[in-house]
Structures are given as structure tokens and as C-alpha cells.
């Protein structure tokens, strides 16, 4: 698996990007034998279609990439990634690609080479690309590596990625990037400092912990908090089997935060980065926490547990309270938190919450630029009453089922300390294979955030 561009001086096959409506004009400008071959093969310029045109010696003289129409492109992302998978192996140089699309299409080409091969060899695309002129190839390679890191972590099952392995992955990233890493674990220390993290994870074989990574010496302070529930049985409110099958991805927030952190550090952004990952497994045992328990969080707030399957907001609460103690310039949490977000927006959109209109504007502009779609949902303050049970300060699972993603976000905001805070309720999984996104784990929102940070933090 190679997520890099070919060197610019590599001999390359010209790859012409042709829209459906422009094919006739393109053919008119070609030698007769090329035009005849293209017509005989039935190439129409449809989106994602590829065609190699042979030379007299049986090699490839040139290739065509169908770019469809504006209508068909609006229904998809990474339009050339499918072409990368359909072409024979070799090195290609793009011709005719609109300049404004070059960066996104080049990244999609890199991502089409991703394959998760820990347990079985796969068949990713073999066609390499020379980075289009004007594209920052090194930056895109860093982004592709960060996305691959996120995907690998999500795709790894819980028997090989529990809290121990997640901590080991963090150590490897810290060592690679020159970051500092500490880990709070052990029942006495964790229960004292992060009681909710301890309570959620204490029934598991592998100990719960709070992983902290810091990097950078100057600039604004950015804190990233990622939900690291390595597997979620639902606890004593046990999930049915049909709902438990994908729970290896319940650490998708941590995986996405780590992918974003890799990008930030590898690109040497001028900021101070802090990554907080509460790493637990929500398991069933005699010492598992129970429905009806009332817990006290790190910041002293009390929480009534009305569903042990709403554990993600509990471990995030302690981490957010800890993050807020340093008064960051921006704090962002990412979590595979609620099914309600999926019902509302499906698997492809990243719902996010913020009270900062400037942050929202910058993020959405960035999301459009890099083709990483997000959608703002409201911190709707009138719903605060829904998370106040009366017997404790907060309820971790309000009854009724209304506004489940919003009430979860409001719960988290209570621990964020009033600082500039945004929460992403992501899915972290591609249920159906698509260009540059095979079925399986996927990052959501990280590329949009990376592109927005210079504006948001005035870098």
C-alpha cells in the first residue's frame, strides 16, 4: 500500500480527463486510430469510467478518465479515485483536470490505494499518479497518512485493539512526531482523578485509562478529545447482537483525533496541541456500573446513570473537564456518540455543534474546499431541562428519545468550561464501498478541521 505520489520526473502515461459533453470535441482533435478505438470501446466520458488506449507495440499510449457531468459529480466525491482503481498499473499524469479540482482529486487518488491488510492481503489500486502542477504533494501525502491511521485503528477488532493497544498506538505516534505522552491508569489514581472513566471501564479485563499527548511550544492552544471506547457491549443495558456487531468502531472519535493530530504535527502547524483520549472497554462483570447509579465527575457534577449504554458521554465528561482546566483557545471533541445523529444525517455527513458562528463559517467553507462535508446542529439551550433529572445534576440518558444527539451534546457542553468548544458526533464507518472510501473505518471532519484551523486560530 503506497499513499504517495510518483516522483515528478517519472516517465508517465498521459491521462486525459474528459467530460461527457466534451468527448466529441476531444475525439475530433485526435488521430483517427485513437478516435476509432475510443468509439469502438464504447467510452462515453461517464463519471468514473476509464479506458486505456494501446500503442503500436501493445503498451499504453494514453488513457481516458470519464469526468461525467456537473450533475453526476454533485452526487459523488473523489471522482477520479474510481478511475485509479480501474486503470492498469503504471504511472499517470493528468491532463485537462480543472485547476480548482486538482487538490481534492489528487488526494482521492492517494486514498484509493488504501487497503486494510492486517489479516488478509487486499487489492488496492495500482495506478500511481504524478501530483498535478500547483498541488502541494507533501501536504496531501501527510493528510492521506493521517486518514490511513484513522482507518487502520477503526478497522482493527477489539481483540487486537483494546485500551492497551490504543495506548501503544498513541506512544508510536508521539515517538514519531516528538510529542510527550503520559497515561493515568490504576484503580486508585484513576478513580481519584477521573472517576467517570474509571467507573465505565472498571469491569473490563484491560484497565481503563486517560491518555494525554502534548506537542508544540508556542502558539494558540488546541485541545482535541476523542472517545476511546474500544468495544461497547452496552454494559448491563446489554446491546442486542445486531447492534453490537460494529462496536469495534466505538473508538472512532479517538482514531479520528489521532489522525488529525498526526496531520497537525507532521505539517508543523504553529500551535500547542493537547490530545486527550479516555480509553476504556464497556464490559459486563460483577463490578460493572448499574442503571440508577449516581456518579460524581472530575469537576464535582453528579450524574444519574439511566442507561449504561450511554457511556461515551461519561468518559468524555471527565476528559473535557480536565481539558478545560488549561483554558484552551479551542477545544474539540469527536465521538461515535449517538444513533440519533445517524438517523438525522446518515453515515456520510459529520454533524457538529458550536456556539461560535465564526468557527462554523470557517469550518463550512473549509469543508466545501476539501470535500469533507459537515452539518451544523444546534446547542439548543431550551433542551437543557431534558438532561436534568432532579435527583442529580445531570441525566446521562434522558427518556423519550427526542433530540438524542442534541441532548448528548448539551451534556458534554456542561463539562467544557465555557471555552470555545465544538463537538462532532461522527459515525466513523463507510457502510458501502465508494471511490477512495472502501467499506470500513473512515475519518470524518478531520480534513475540514485541518483546513479551517489557520482561520479559526489565526495561525
Any overview of this molecule?
Pfam families: Peptidase_M17, Peptidase_M17_N_1. InterPro entries: Leucine_aapep/pepB (IPR011356), Macro_dom-like (IPR043472), Peptidase_M17_C (IPR000819), Peptidase_M17_N_1 (IPR048816). Keywords: Aminopeptidase, Hydrolase, Manganese, Protease. Its EC number is 3.4.11.1. This protein has 459 residues and is an alpha/beta fold. It folds into two domains: 114 residues, Leucine Aminopeptidase, subunit E, domain 1 (3-Layer(aba) Sandwich); 315 residues, Aminopeptidase (3-Layer(aba) Sandwich), CATH 3.40.630.10. It is built from 16 helices and 19 strands. Helix 5 packs across helix 6 and helix 8 crosses helix 9. It is elongated, with a radius of gyration of 24 Å. The mean pLDDT is 96.
Concise overview:
The chain has 459 residues and is α/β, with parallel strands linked by helices. 34% of the residues lie in helices and 20% in strands. Helix 9 packs antiparallel against helix 12, helix 11 (252-266) packs across helix 16 (446-456) and helix 14 (357-370) crosses helix 16 (446-456).
